[in-house]
Amino acid sequence: MKELEVALAEIRESLMNGQTERLQSLIKTAFSNGVEAEDILNRGLISGMGLLGELFEKKEVYVPDLLLAARSMTAVMGLLETKLVKTNTIAIKQKVIIGTVRGDIHNIGKNLVIIMLKCSGFEVQDLGIDVPPEDFVRAAKEGASLVCMSALLATSLPFLKTTIDALREAGLGGLKTMVGGAVVTPTYASTIGASGYAPNAAVAVRKAKELLNLS
Amino acid sequence: MSLNKQSGKDILSGKPLLVFDSRELPIDKVEVMRYLGYRKKFVRHEVVEELVEEEIQEARRLIMPQAVYMRQSVKSLQNGIITFTNGFHLNVGDASGEWKGCQYVGIGLCTIGMGVEDKVDELFPRQENLSALILDVVGSVAVEAIVNEVNFLVCHGEQKEGNVLGPRVSPGYGKWQLTDQKVIFSLLPISQIGVMLNEQCMMIPRKSCSFCLGIGAALEHQYNPCRRCGKVGCDMRWSTKKERHSGK
Question: What is the crossing angle of helices B129-160 and B46-62, to 10°?
Answer without folding.
Answer: 60
